[in-house]
Amino acid sequence: MINIFDRLLNPSKRVKRLLKQPPKDDIDRLLTKKMKALQKNNLLEKTDQAVTYKSVMFKLSLLLVITITIGFLTYRQFSSIEGLKSFAHNFTLICDKLDFIENAFNNDAQKKDVYAFLVLFLPMGIFFLSAILWAIGFFSFRPLLKIGTIFLSLAIGFFFGSFLSLLAFRGKAFQHVNKMQTGINIVVLLFTVPLVGTILVLVFMSLLYFLHKKTIPSRFLKTVQTLFIVSLIVFFISLLCVFSTKWYINIIAFLLALFSVFIGAWMWVIALDVVDKFVKEQIPQKYEWIVISLLLIAILQIFTSIFKMVSILYRLSTEKDNSSPKKANKN
């Protein structure tokens, strides 16, 4: 099992296999022979630039900026009924048959259903479609990887922006103070804490890698690759647990999120190791999106896991505050 995941998730081995594929027919063999002769006599110029740290980190930073920007804009759009109505109107322009979505806001019985569709199920569906596109590009059809990674960053920003607005709405309903101030506090809490936590984890694991990268057992890294796949599946299954009222389910979800942070941190180490191999072996730059996507997934896994942990704690605290006035009124 570990060897299967290692074959899929080890970009340096996959790239070497792609670069060293044997010719399929006589014409390919002849062309390959001619190219080798030209290379031997230094008559063939290199057109492919090699992977560099600067290029990888620049594109990774750009993707993260895109994700954060989309998340912020989505939260601003979904954090009010007027914004949701405007989004529903623009969404229905895609197809006339979707007019019922906009009309549902005028029906109190259907308002909650269309709200759940726009804020939760639509972003989740877009995210899963983007994840499938990315997976096809990463594991099978490499030309799709670049666009799949970009769409994945957009979808994740859209998903968590809408998810944050949903939690903000719940917080406003629970609180008996200024609603606008409550919404701002929720954004600060549920964005700043995961962001700072993610930065601290990345800095610590980066220092650990650069100081002790020769002492990390390869067997352990292969095991982490396997657990990474498992943790992603478990994460998406348990994502909606933040709305559960069962205390034991929240504890399990919190522990799973903590475990996911650990796995994401070690996946960051693996990704750094792959970057070093790409740069050292001068892998062509057209393959750099393999390692960029690995770095992006590791960062987002850490951030989203911390986000889920903070969301669970926040929801439990707001429900506790909401139940206190009810008990006081009964007395």
UniProtKB/TrEMBL annotation:
Lipid biosynthesis as UniProt keyword: no
Keywords associated with the record: Membrane, Transmembrane, Transmembrane helix
Keyword Transmembrane helix among record annotations: yes
Domain of life according to the entry: Bacteria
Transmembrane segments: 56-75, 114-141, 147-167, 187-211, 223-243, 248-269, 289-310
Protein's name in the database: Bax inhibitor-1/YccA family protein
